[in-house]
Amino acid sequence: MNNEVKIKAKNVNFYYGNKQVLENIDLEFYQNRVSALIGPSGCGKSTFIRLFNRMNDLISNTRMEGKIYLDNIDINGKNVDVVKIRRLVGMVFQKPNPFPKTIYENVSYGLEVNGIKDKKSIEEKVIESLDRAALWREVKDRLHDSALGLSGGQQQRLCIARCLAVEPEVILFDEPCASLDPISTRSIEELILELKKYYTIVIVTHNMQQAARISDFTAFLYLGELIEFGPTEKLFTVPKEKTTEEYLTGKFG
Amino acid sequence: MKFTIRAGVVKENIYKWVFAVSAFASLLFLVGITITLFIEGLPIFKEVGFFDLLFGKLWYPTYDPADFGIFPLIMGTVWVTVGALVVCVILGVGSALYINELAGKKQRAILKPMIEILAAIPSIVYGFFGMVIVAPFIQNLLGLPTGLCAFTGSLILGIMALPTVCSIAEDALSFVPKSFREASLALGANRWQTMVRVVIPAAGSGISTAIILGMSRAVGETMTVLMVTGGAAVIPHSFFDPVRPMTSTIAAEMGEAVMGGAHYHALFAIGLILFLITFIFNVIAETISRKYRLKLGLSG
Fold first, then answer.
1. For testing the chain A interface, which of B181, B187, B194 should be mutated: the one with the most A CBs within 10 Å?
2. How many domains does chain B have?
3. Which terminal residue of chain A has fewer beta carbons within 10 Å of its beta carbon, N or C?
C-alpha cells in the first residue's frame, strides 16, 4: 500500500484567546485514505480539522502557530487565496445544514459561486453529485422541492452532494453522523467508503466503532495533544500508548 | 383557616378581572375606532360618489360648491411614501447589513443602539429640522422655488423610518443560523456571494417585514409631512413639487371643518382609507414573518 501525503500539519498550536486548545501537533493524512480523529469531547478534534479549510478564520480572537500544507503548499501563506483552499478542501458539518433552498439549488449553488454559468453543465454536475452521494434515486422526482423537507440522513447526504459538486480533493467530515439515526449513519458510512476512491477523507468522530469500521488510519487526540497515530487496525488492537488503551477500553471518555 | 382560603380566591379573581379588562380594552378601542371611521366616513361616499371621491382631481373642500376629490392627496402620500421607501431601504437595510455582516463587535455595539435612538426623537423635531435646515438647503442646492416638497418629505420620513427598518432587518439577519454562512464559505463562496445569495434570502421575509413596517410608519406619519411637504393639494408631477399627503390634510383641516358637514365626513373618509392602507401593510408584514418563522423551523 503506497501512502502519499496529501495534508501535513507541522507543529500546530492553536489558541482561543489565551487558552491553548491544540498543542504542537504533527500529523499527516494520506491520499485516498480515510483518516479518523478520535478522542473525548472538547479535545480539539473539530478545531483541528477546521484548520484545513481555514474555517477558524471566521472566529475572532483565535491564533494559530505552525504550518499546514496541502500538497506541499502552505495554506496560510501570503499569496494563497482562502476561497481556493476551501474549494479544494470540502467540509461536511456535524448537523446537516442544507440551505433553505430547493434540493437542486443546494447542489448548484457551489457551482454557480465558482463561476460556472452554463446551465447544461450545471445540471449534469448536479445529477452526478446527487448520484455519487447516493441520493439521486430518492430525490429525482422532487429536485425543486425545499431541501428542508428531507429527513436528517437525506439532508446530510445532500450536504455531501453539495460538497462533491465543487470537485474538492479533500473532504473533511466533522462528526457527520452525530445527529443521525443508526440506519442513516450506516448509509453515510458506506458512502464514505465509496468516496475514498476519489478523495482524501478526514473524519472526526467520537464514536470509536465508527472509526474502526471505516478508517484506514486513526489519530487519538487528548486534551489538545496528539497521543497516538497509526493504522486503525494497529491502534485499536495493539495501542502503543497507555492513554490510548484506557480510552479505547472505556476507562474515561 | 377557611376564611383565609376564601380571601385568596377572591383576590385571585380580582386580579383576573383587572387583567381581563385591560386585555379587552384594546379590543374595544379597535372596534370603537373602526366603527367611528366607518360611520363618519361613509356618508361622503354616498354624497360625492365612490369613484369621484377617490379619483376626483380637485380638492377644494371650502369652496362653494366644494370639490372633494382626494386623488391629489392620495398621490401626495404615494409619492412621499415611495421616496421614503427608497431612502429607508437604502439606509435601513444597508446599515443592517453593515452592522450584521461587516462591522466588528465594537462598531456593532455602538451603531445599533445609536440607530435605535433615532426612533426616540419626537416627530415634531424631525419636522422642525426638515423645515429649518433641510428644506432651505435643498432649495439652494437645486435652485427650487421652495424646498418644502415631496423630496424633502421623503428624505425626512425615510430617516424617521430608518430605525424601524434597520432594527427589524438586523434582527432577521442575526437569526440566520451561522451554519448557513459556514456551509456557503466552505463551498468556496466569498463573503459577498454568501451575503447576497444565502444570508439575505434566508432573512428575506424578515427584511420585507421590516420594510413594510417602515412604510406603514411613513404612510401614517403626520406632523413631519405637514411641516416639510409644502401642503399643496395638487397632483404632483415631480419629486420637487409641493404635495399635501392624506395625513397632513386631516391635521390641517379638521379644526376648521364644520362638525357633521361634508368636509368633516370627507376627512374621516381619508382617515378610513389611511387606516385600511396601514392595516393591509401590517397584515402583509405579519403573514410574511409567520411564514418565515415556519421556514426556518422556529415555532410560529
1. B187
2. 2
3. N
A179 CA to centre of own chain: 15
Interface ipTM: 0.90
Mean pLDDT, contiguous 10-residue spans, chain A (253 residues): 87 93 94 94 90 90 93 91 93 93 94 92 95 92 92 93 94 92 91 93 92 94 93 93 90 76
**Domain map (residue ranges) of chain A:** 5-248
| All cell numbers assigned to B16 | 383576573
Q: Is residue B52 part of a domain?
A: no
Q: A102: left (phi > 0), else alpha (psi -120 to 50), else beta?
A: beta
Q: Are residues B21 and B164 in the same domain?
A: no
- Residue B31 sits in which domain range? 2-44
Same domain, B32 and B91: no
Task: Determine the CATH number of domain A5-248.
Answer: 3.40.50.300
Low-confidence ranges of chain B (pLDDT < 50): 298-300
Contact with chain A for residue B296, Cβ under 8 A:
yes
Q: Which of B83, B84, B86, B108 is nearest to B167 (CA)?
A: B108
Contact residues, chain B, for A53 at CB < 8 Å: 186
The reply to whether A86 touches chain B by the CB within 8 Å rule is: yes
Across the interface, whether the CB atoms of A99 and B202 are under 8 A apart is answered yes
| Distance separating alpha carbons of residues B36 and B200, to the nearest angstrom | 42
Tell me if the pTM is above 0.90.
no
